[in-house]
Design goal:
It is a single chain. This protein has 243 residues and is mainly beta. The protein has a single domain, classed as Porin, CATH 2.40.160. 9% of the residues lie in helices and 55% in strands. It has 1 helix and 13 strands; from the N terminus they run H-E-E-E-E-E-E-E-E-E-E-E-E-E. The strands form 3 sheets. The chain has an 8-stranded antiparallel barrel with strand order 1-2-3-6-7-11-12-13. A 3-stranded antiparallel sheet has the order 9-8-10, with no helix packed on it. The radius of gyration is 21 Å and the shape is elongated. The relative contact order is 0.21.
């Protein structure tokens, strides 16, 4: 259901962008480079999936941009569910034993499909990128009380900790120094819609598909299936500048 809703949102935004493009005039303006950053939502994330950064510059072909990108994402297992502690009411992710923080380095091309007219319309690009991924597998800590009293302990979640003993999650970034590293690669393809009305600034959204694959299966929930590949539908709202 979550994937279906995001897919529908991507389709509606893409349709809007295409319709706006056909309404623009032919008097386009020129630029040579741009830098953007964005907030990402995807089918393997919570409310916010993470952040993106991209530098692009035009090549000799005026419709092709060379791109260098970085994505920093918190990847969730499809079966993750949030629960309230029976003791404190605080939220924790039931059954989760590890975080997966994905650092995706990307090199690619943006192909301008429709040029933007000054102060109106939309510029549409086809986006293609590939590159290495580094996955940081950090332990997921919970605070719990083994005897039901007020003395609590913090440890990486395991099936040996009953849910009715959990008070909530551990401290922010707790256990990060105990992380393991997984190496892999990523590929993405999408459509980029720039909607800004000011020549020097960039505002818009990007929607598409990304495949993140690692050399090993990664355990996020001990009792659930492990995955080495993560096919993802994504939507990114971005901002930036160009010159």
């Amino acid at each position: 259901m979550h994937s279906r809703k995001l897919s529908l949102l991507i389709f509606l935004l893409a349709t809007y962008g295409l319709n706006s493009a056909y309404a623009q005039t032919q008097d386009s303006y020129e630029y040579q480079s741009e830098f953007t950053w964005g907030i990402n939502k995807n089918t393997m994330s919570g409310l916010i999936g993470g952040f993106t950064f991209k530098k692009a510059r035009k090549l000799k072909n005026d419709r092709v941009l060379e791109t260098f990108g970085l994505e920093i994402m918190n990847v969730r297992h499809p079966q993750e569910t949030r629960r309230n502690s029976l003791i404190t009411g605080n939220f924790f992710t039931f059954g989760k034993s590890n975080y997966l923080y994905a650092f995706r380095f990307q090199y690619g091309r943006d192909l301008i499909l429709y040029k933007k007219a000054p102060y109106q319309g939309v510029e549409i690009k086809g986006v293609f990128a590939v590159g290495p991924s580094i996955g940081i597998i950090a332990p997921y800590y919970v605070e719990y009380s083994p005897d039901g009293g007020f003395a609590t302990f913090r440890d990486q979640y395991s099936v040996a900790i009953p849910p009715d003993q959990i008070w909530g999650t551990g401290r922010l970034f707790e256990g990060l120094g105990e992380s393991d590293v997984a190496f892999g690669a990523n590929f993405k393809a999408g459509l980029n819609f720039e909607l800004g009305t000011v020549k020097s600034s960039v505002t818009g959204f990007e929607a598409g598909f990304l495949l993140d694959a690692y050399a090993q299966s990664i355990e996020l929930i001990p009792t659930a299936q492990k995955y080495a590949t993560y096919p993802i539908l994504y939507l990114t709202l971005f901002f930036g500048s160009r010159k």
